[in-house]
Write a structure and sequence with these properties.
- This is Abortive infection family protein.
- It comes from Streptomyces gibsoniae.
- The chain has about 325 residues and is mainly α.
- Helix content is about 65%, strand content about 0%.
- The chain folds into two domains: about 160 residues, Four Helix Bundle (Hemerythrin (Met), subunit A) (Up-down Bundle), CATH 1.20.120; about 160 residues.
Length: about 325
């Protein structure tokens, strides 16, 4: 009966790397071959290995590195948390849409113990009887979680930080496309360095006059402030004033205005601007900024009233620093 379960293809997410899909296919094929040969120890071992393979693929696709000696339960838990982001944000833990996948994960988590007791991978001094019930539990336990995770992987890849940062640097965005990907990324659920990194990429792309990125990645911060964490906001401000080479670069019609928007709802704007001042003070100026700095400084002065009260003095300090460093002296 379980042979029917491995006849159906596994869900294949768009954008998944070919080598990752090949690894999953190899493990799935090995499980099917073991079932066909009625090699019960290999079925048990292959079921566990398939789950671990899919879990590691999920983490790699999401930009997270795992060591080859990381414990099975740790890898599975982290992968489940990543894929669970694809569920509707804000669902309570007791919602059925979270409880059902959690139950699937619990089933998959038992495969390690069953593999240790019955499966391949250990040179045992005795042969344990492996009943049909053990085999069926392993196959069902593996495939329920694997199919759920792979079906959700499309959304994970949609919001994965690494490809999203890459596309913000080099890709093309149509209206609403970035909004969907940022939503899929579940920015509040990311670790702070990733939030900040994503914000920097959005700020830098916006400063390059990409209008749709400004709308979806910056203006949205003002419209729905509760959805955008402080670390992301700080990254956006950095990206608006520093290019990818770490040089000071800003556009007069974009950078000051967008920075004021983002900082309006930051919990510590003075800290963001103090750190930005330090970075700008030690960075060289791009050729573009050397040409446009008078207009940028003027625009920053015009935006001063829109800054939160605690941010106005450090903003003024940055203006004065830039004016003092200008090629022709203070302006």
């Amino acid at each position: 009966m379980i042979s029917i379960l491995v006849q159906e293809s596994l869900p294949q997410a768009e954008w998944l790397q070919e080598e990752s899909w090949q690894a999953i296919s190899d493990h799935y094929g090995r499980l099917g071959a073991a079932i066909a040969a009625n090699d019960r120890p290999l079925v048990v071992g292959s079921a566990k290995e398939l789950v671990e393979c899919v879990a590691r693929v999920v983490l790699v696709a999401h930009g997270r590195v795992t060591g080859d000696k990381d414990e099975y339960d740790k890898v599975l838990g982290h992968a489940h948390a990543v894929v669970e982001h694809a569920a509707e944000h804000g669902l309570p833990p007791n919602d059925p849409l979270r409880q059902i996948p959690s139950a699937a994960k619990k089933m998959a988590s038992q495969l390690r113990e069953l593999r240790n007791r019955f499966g391949t991978g250990h040179g045992r001094p005795v042969v344990h009887e492996i009943t049909a019930e053990v085999v069926e539990a392993c196959v069902h336990g593996a495939l329920v979680w694997v199919r759920w995770a792979l079906a959700r992987l499309q959304t994970v890849l949609l919001g994965a930080v690494e490809p999203l940062v890459h596309d913000l640097r080099e890709g093309i965005f149509s209206r609403g496309n970035l909004a969907a990907r940022l939503d899929a990324a579940n920015i509040p659920g990311l670790e702070e360095p990733e939030q900040r990194r994503l914000g920097v990429a959005v700020g830098q792309r916006s400063a390059r006059e990409t209008f749709v990125v400004r709308i979806d990645g910056i203006r949205a911060c003002a419209d729905n402030p509760e959805r955008w964490p402080d670390a992301y906001r700080q990254g956006v401000v950095e990206g608006l004033f520093l290019n990818e080479d770490g040089q000071v670069e800003a556009r007069p019609s974009i950078s000051p205005d967008c920075a004021a928007d983002v900082l309006r709802h930051h919990s510590a704007p003075e800290q963001v601007l103090a750190e930005l001042r330090d970075v700008l003070g030690s960075a060289s100026w791009s050729v573009l900024f050397q040409q446009e700095h008078p207009a940028v400084i003027t625009a920053m002065r015009e935006e001063l009233p829109r800054l939160p009260g605690l941010g106005q003095q450090p903003w003024t300090d940055i203006i004065n620093d830039l004016a003092a460093r200008a090629p022709f002296g203070p302006r």
